[in-house]
Amino acid sequence: MIYDLSTQACPGQPQLKDINMAKPISIIGVPMDFGQMLRGVDMGPAALRYTGLIPRLRRLGYDVKDEGDIPIPVRDDDPAMEGVKDRYVKEITQISHDLYNTGRRVMDQGRMPIFLGGDHAIAIGAVASVTAKEHVGLIWVDAHADFNTPQTSPSGNIHGMPLAVLTGDGYPCLVDAGHPGTKISLDNVIMIGQRDLDPGEKKRIKSSGITIFTMRDIDEQGMSAIAAKIIVQFAHLKRFHLSLDMDALDPVEAPGVGTPVPGGISYREAHLLMELLADSGKLGSMDLVEINPILDVANKTSKLAVELILSALGKSIL
Questions:
Q1: What are 53-84's pLDDT values in tens digits?
Q2: What is the per-residue pLDDT for 118?
Q3: Is it true that the peptide bond before 29 is cis, omega within 30 degrees of 0?
Q4: pLDDT digit string, tens, across residues 87-107
Q5: What pLDDT, on the 0 to 100 scale, is given for residue 84?
Q6: Can you give the pTM of this predicted structure?
Q7: Which residue of 2, 136, 156, 219 has the smallest Cβ count within 10 Å?
Q8: DSSP string for the chain
């Protein structure tokens, strides 16, 4: 049920700016941690649900359906797997296919999918599903580029490769997950908040011509100016997908992540970006990843993540 927001609101209750923004939402949990060696991000979807994401979206005026979690195989932490370059490729490929099918079903029903990770490798299936029928912009907010290939990755961890996979480089089975080939063109990708890049990634990014706003760019230009550039670059597209890795934020704000990097996006910079993307009216889907409750402090990271999702979906100060 979508609440009638034309009536007077209860005091203190947040409201959408525009009833037309209240597209039905489907929550899709992806408790996957195959993309990295550090355990814990598989509990991210549960942490977001326990923090009250769904009831708060409903209070904001949305019709929300929880689709449950994508089935995830049991992970066997065999010490022999450490250092193996193609570890867990088979499992991530199958999960990506399943996630693709779920995302497609939700999109066909006219609902907005919100994918809850899990590590950032879930974006392979998530983005594949939302780009299947039309060109979509992709906003990649992350401390890292996730633009490695098996040849450039120092660790072999697949959560450092999803953006490369989506743009056509990487393990062929992952590139072809959902449907064969490249899922999104480099022209339709904007990266924000990067500050920790591997040497091979730097070369690949420079040669790709991809649009990237590193932390230095945010410092120099300000988040408002960068958001305006995003809207201009995606003016020809009907919608965009937001992929938000919580390690994009400064660890002071979001300590519960597996790969924290100092000097990240501030609390207000993050909310401003979400608010301005909401104002564009073009946010069609999103994924939120890399929350590790084991490493969190008093659930601080999950609470912030829920607030950022609400801001991206129209919660405003006034």
A1: 999 999 999 999 999 999 999 987 766 666 66
A2: 96
A3: no
A4: 899 999 999 999 999 999 999
A5: 67
A6: 0.92
A7: 219
A8: ----TTSPPPTT----S-GGG---EEEEEE---TTSSS--GGGHHHHHHHTTHHHHHHHTT--EEEEEE---PPP---GGGTT-TTTTHHHHHHHHHHHHHHHHHHHHTT-EEEEEESSGGGHHHHHHHHTSSS--EEEEE-SS-----TTT-SS--GGGSHHHHHTT-S-HHHHTSSSSS-SS-GGGEEEES-----HHHHHHHHHHT-EEE-HHHHHHH-HHHHHHHHHHHTTTSS-EEEEEEGGGB-TTT---BSS--SS-B-HHHHHHHHHHHHHHT-EEEEEEE-B-GGG-STTHHHHHHHHHHHHHTT----
113 beta partners: 26
The mean of the pLDDT values for the chain is 92
Determine if residue 110 is left, alpha or beta; phi over 0 gives left, psi from -120 to 50 gives alpha, anything else beta.
left
Tell me the CATH number of domain 23-73+81-312, given options 3.30.420.10, 3.40.640.10, 3.40.50.300, 3.40.800.10: 3.40.800.10
Q: In the chain, where are the structural domains located?
A: 23-73+81-312
- Which residues are the active-site residues? 120, 142, 144, 146, 159, 245, 247, 290
Q: Which of 57, 61, 55 is nearest to 18 (CA)?
A: 61
pLDDT of residue 38: 85
Lookup result for tokens 């929550």: 27
